[in-house]
Amino acid sequence: MSDLKRVKINGTAVPIRGDEIDTDRIVPARFLKEITFEKMGEYLFFDSRFSSSNEKLDHPLNDPKYKGATILIVGKNFGCGSSREHAPQSIVRYGIWAIIGESFAEIFSGNCKALGLPTVTVSPEDISKLFKVTESKPSTEYTIDLVRKTIRFNSTTLPLDMPEARRKALLEGIWSSTNMLKANSHLVRETAGRLPYIHKSSIII
To answer: Is residue 105 part of a domain?
Structure first.
């Protein structure tokens, strides 16, 4: 499971200013009717990025300066509102590998962890600094180090924070419940085989 470990995330960033950005803004409710998450990346911040006639609006994700960015920089209580898992799915499928914010909604942050997407927090002063640096020089490369709990860029190092249980799960690569079940499939089969209400022919893991 070593390929699931999240130790360091490197890349440029895209700044999304504003506090209390809820999951409906991240991915509008009408796209929840999709049967799978496959196209969710196309709908990230859709109503903020496109007009009703599908014309591009002034939004960081539409700005060529931030093309290829793999880190989101956000404000306070990002991901509040409904608990829809489509929101982190849209972020991951767009190509974002980590989010740096002042704070996150608890359920949203948990849903991100379940996808291997780190949500790390910094102080209000440091988030302001990150916004300014990224907007003034979009090519700035960041390194999020979950071992040292730091964010490095240029000659600057900032401290980051995140719940220890989530940090450990990402570092050890045990954030995916599906992969954990697969890795322990023999134990699952053994347990299921002892249950009188499960027929052995139905155990396919």
So the answer is: yes
